[in-house]
Design brief:
With 213 residues, the chain is α/β, with parallel strands linked by helices. The protein has seven helices and five strands. A five-stranded parallel beta sheet has the order 2-1-3-4-5, with helices on both faces. The chain is globular.
Length: 213
Amino acid sequence: MSPAHLPVALTQILVLAAHPHLEHSRVNAQMMRSAAASALAERVQVRDLYALYPDYLIDVAAEQRALAAAQLVVWLQPLHWYGMTPLLKLWLDEVFAFGWAYGPGGRAMAGKDLWLVASTGGAEDSYRPQGTNRHFFDAFLPPYEQTAALAGMRFLPPLLLHGAHRVGEAELAAHVQVFVDRLQRYPEWPEMSQMPPCEVIEVGATDRPAGVE
């Protein structure tokens, strides 16, 4: 069945843009604008977290409602110290709550897809054992993958753009087009049929990844 014939609840895409200085961004700003374009408006909701929450006071209920309506959740971010930007990390801490996103009774995100769309300052060859970052990029993905697994989500192959500060206009345009094409075609991606279903991980009260006092 093509995406056009799927129920709306199963085709909606939520793009969570989390760039702390979007006014200085070339890559993320252009990708966010493209995701919000009218051609995708019926399928995609874009939420600019730094514009919504400049005071870092997250409306958890509103974010959970937006997530509940989406089948594909996209984290659009520049990589910060090998991980999430500060507000995206806080968003995760508060919105993916115990008993809602994971743990006993926490199945709100189960069966959905999570897609990381990230840019890095370092060139691709800096993510090598002999490079500045000392590891292939995949070494920095386990926290994202495990977050998806605990929530019962399927972690899709990330879309990455390395050396974002120096990328040429033609390469950037091609990268943005790949992003838009993927949003338009979801869930009919060639690799989908080869991917295993979402994991089911039982998390007890004493196994929570978030610290409690």
